[in-house]
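User: Predict the complex with adenosine-5'-triphosphate.
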Amino acid sequence: MKKRSPAVLSFSIVIVLYIIFEVLLKTGNLSSLMISLLIPVCCYMTAAIGLNLNVGISGELNLGQAGFMSIGAFTGICVSGVLASVTGNGVVRLVIAILCGMVIAALFGILIGIPTLKLSGDYLAIVTLAFGEIIKSLVTNMYLGFDVSGLHFSFVQNNVTLEPGGKMLLNGAMGATSTEKIASFTAGAVLVLISLAVVYNLMDSKSGRAIMAARDNRIAASSIGINVTGVKMLAFVTSAALAGAAGALYGLNFSTLVPSKFDFNLSIMILVYVVLGGLGNMTGTIIATTLLVVLPQVLRSLSEYRMLIYAVVLIAIMLITNNEKLKTDFAKTKLVERFRLRRDKGGAGHGE
Amino acid sequence: MENNKAPVLEVTGLGIDFGGLTAVDNFSLSVYPGEIRGLIGPNGAGKTTVFNMLTKVYEPSRGSIIFDGKDTSKMDVVAMNRAGIARTFQNIRLFSKMTVLDNVKAGMNGRITYGNVAAILRLPGFRKQEKEIKESSMELLKIFGLEESAGLMAGNLPYGAQRRLEMARAMATDPKLLLLDEPAAGMNPQETEELMDMVRSIRDRFGIAILLIEHDMQLVMGICERITVLNYGMILSEGTPSEIQNDPQVIKAYLGD
Ligand SMILES: Nc1ncnc2c1ncn2[C@@H]1O[C@H](COP(=O)(O)OP(=O)(O)OP(=O)(O)O)[C@@H](O)[C@H]1O
Ligand SMILES: [Mg+2]
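Assistant: Here is the predicted structure with adenosine-5'-triphosphate placed in the model:
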């Protein structure tokens, strides 16, 4: 019972945030800037939750989360573009696009993970860093068109000629142009909740224990029969899959999307959400992502104090979520103690 | 005992070189089910290296390890554990950022059959097995006197309790042979006494064989039926505790010339 409370807290925060913003949205109380952030925040959050499984729970540094988002985004855009000729139902297309983005990103995860995760050390960081850059260059050189006779693909040079009524899905450095925007805030919130459920339930299972064991002590883990490479792979591929899903939703939220959007800066930004929120702490990831995306925009009106406040908040988040000493001090304060006593009395029977 | 049972572990001519240095050579040993066997020797004799070869943390340079009647030359660390060898480490290797209970549960992963999908969807099969795993883990913790600490972080346990938790985690894998590397190191006499009782009681209860490295002679002589003495990587002597205690060569190796 006690163990599940961080999950309950995470779910509650997401649901409450969703309701607040949905109400503000429906009552017309959100600025157009804030509206434009709603879906991206959900995407960053999903990618960050996945990355926290990889970096926090499994203990492997991954600097290429943007690469997996890119794969998810452009896969999703292409799938949705092709499906447009089959069904007009946006929700169906969105779900299929997200699933495809997820699967393709996971496949790339497997491809990278197999040679890399066999080695101990920081190889994954180096390989994922390169991977992110390679994906960006590859997509920048891809041309994909779709017309009545099917898909037409060319690389480096645009040799795609389409029948009348056909359309370009990928346009080299210009990326995707004229994508039909079928993403929604509700879909984003659902995606975040699903990722949380996947990660929390995985963590509290045989695989989660194996992942953490392999992180804490590789040799001891293999000495009790845990396949260290296998479980590190599971964490990495799950993280890639969630980034792929997040990317697909992201891609279907913009009518135009350039491949260079998914660069090293984005990978680092998502890593910052994870590290500031606390390694292995999913609730922290959610809070850090929300604050760090929304805050700079809200602070705009304060002009010159903006960066100062932003920095103070950054430091505060880091201290609160990562500092053991501070956490224990906080837990020691009378108020928390009294609250806990009361709750323990009330919840008799759950005691350890 | 040795006449009517096949040995669970049969090692012949085991050796390993590190670069030019031969750390262990021509090491042979048979351990029988239900036996508590001691492995002793001065510092640097190669005792831990023998454990590392038996668990394939190190690949032996020569010799053979037959475990439970099976040749193990193609097996790796994971396969050796699945075959039935579990161990503790001289320099404790716990999962320090996991709870005491989860350390033991992790040892039971091999017997869990549900898949990740069942875990993510919290299917009845998952719930049932998790309940069973929790119960057997708590039972093991009780045997090692750790049930009160189940919810603590393993890294925060006192030293003696960490050693006992390593044993509990090893036992969670349901081994046929348990290797203990200096289980009483850092324990006070009373803790050592309790440890000896624990070692005997898990042998009796689970019927496993135990091979233990120990510098505490009182412990070794008290619970081992037979003892192998290692010196400079080679077997110096083998016999019952009283034979070993009276072996002039052993006395010389321990006291120096
Ligand atoms: N990985 C390694 N590389 C090089 N030499 C090693 C390695 N492992 C062990 N040795 C050497 O093998 C010899 C035996 O070491 P080992 O740790 O097995 O001794 P031990 O009998 O367990 O000693 P202690 O009682 O101090 O634990 C030592 O000389 C050690 O330096
Ligand atoms: Mg040793």
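The two ends of chain B are 37 Å apart (CA to CA).
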